[in-house]
Amino acid sequence: MANNHPLTKLAGGAALYVQASEPTETPKPKPDGTGGIWYNIASPFGNLKWRFTTDNNIESGVDVENGIAVFLKSGGELFGIDISDGSKLWSTNVDGFYQTGLKISNGTVVLGSKSPAIIGYDITDGTQQWSYTTNNTPSSGAAISNGTAIMGDSTPTVYAVDVTDGSEQWTYTPNSSVESRIGVENGTVVFGDNSDSMFGLDIANGSEIWTYSTAGSAVRSGVAIQNGTVVMGNSDAKNYGIDLSDGSEIWSYHTAASGGNTAGIVIGRNGTVVVGDDSGLYGLSIRNGTKKWQISELNINRSGMSLNYPVVLVGAEDSNIYGIDIRDGSILWQVGAQLPVNSETAIQNGVGYIGSNDGNLYSLDGQKYAEVLISDGSEWVEGI
């Protein structure tokens, strides 16, 4: 078998083989001549490629484009880091809010500033390209879709600006301040506010498509959308599946948290939604919200989540960064930081990036996240 290497020995002396993709030739049979089974598994490694150290905590957004990772440290300094080796390419003082959203599109880094404004920076050298004045400091996550950047503040206002020049496209006034992440799918902008509501707006003009009330509890979580279902959580520790088209409730799931959901959310191609709070990390069904698995020992505060299927990248209050198998909730690996991990996350080409309150931006070897195929015989199957 080409490019195989033995991983372990099975009972009776049969070898177990591993490789990155399905071979073109028939795998070796078991010693007794019967066909074995190939399995699809996740490699339980999270090797640290590099870490870049600053002198203050990192709780902002992190994003990657054109070989550059960009993040904001507390104190307002914006960094551009070469992802190949973790060296600093540039930094600039932007007076950014320490928990601001940050997104990159076509060479422009968009984030919120305490000036107050939404500002665009050149990813190659950190120079300012444009500035759009807001009513107050942008306090939400950021989203960019088809050249439109969207953020919200506490006045309350949600802003949509052109990524190329910062010109206003529209504004919308929700019920209360906006601190949630923002999602966009099929032309609908989705976010929550600090009253109790979720909103769906038309990205073309900011007109309201729907609102959904969570009965008096602030919505400050991440947002994930798959196959027409929006998932968000509120400060009463309740997570919701909402119909993207009309805002109607599909399901809800209540965790045991005391502080509610302010963390990121991801959805896997297997239909598992991952949400987190101070009572643990949960895997729920996207179809009906039923619990598939729970890791109760993890306290997830504001950490973002990213998914390189089947591995969820997430940080925790115990000062560790984790790789979680979305299929069954098993902990595949953990990398120790020195203080709690509350920043957003990013994954590009299988490599993960996440900041910590210890002032470090961590780059984790995505090749170790990759699914591999192993076999002790000649038959292929899907999954494990």
Summarize the structure.
The protein has 384 residues and is an all-beta fold. The protein contains no helices and 37 strands. The protein has a domain at 1-44 and 365-384.
Question: Can you put this structure into words, describing what you see?
Answer:
Residues 1-30, 33-45 and 368-384 have low confidence and may be disordered. The chain has strands spanning 5-9, 15-19, 37-42, 48-53, 62-65, 68-73, 77-82, 88-93, 102-105, 108-113, 117-122, 128-133, 143-145, 148-152, 158-162, 168-172, 183-185, 188-192, 197-202, 208-213, 224-226, 229-233, 238-243, 249-254, 266-267, 272-277, 280-285, 291-295, 305-308, 311-315, 320-325, 331-336, 345-348, 351-355, 360-364, 371-375, 379-380. It is mainly beta and 384 residues long. The chain is 0% helix and 48% strand. The protein is globular. β5 and β6 (68-73) form a beta hairpin. The protein has a domain at 1-44 and 365-384. The two termini are 22 Å apart. The strands form 9 sheets. It has a 5-stranded mixed sheet, with no helix packed on it.
**Beta-strand content bin:** over 45%
Overall radius of gyration: 22 Å
Number of strands: 37
> What overall geometry do the principal axes of the alpha carbons give?
globular
Instruction: Average the pLDDT over all residues and give the rounded result.
Output: 85
What composes the largest sheet?
Answer: 5 strands, mixed
How far apart, in Å, are the first and last alpha carbons? 22 Å
| Strand ordering within the main sheet | 1-2-36-3-37
Poorly predicted tracts of residues: 1-30, 33-45, 368-384
User: What percent of residues adopt helix (DSSP H or I)?
Assistant: under 10%
Separate helix tally:
0
Q: Structural class of the helix and strand makeup?
A: mainly beta
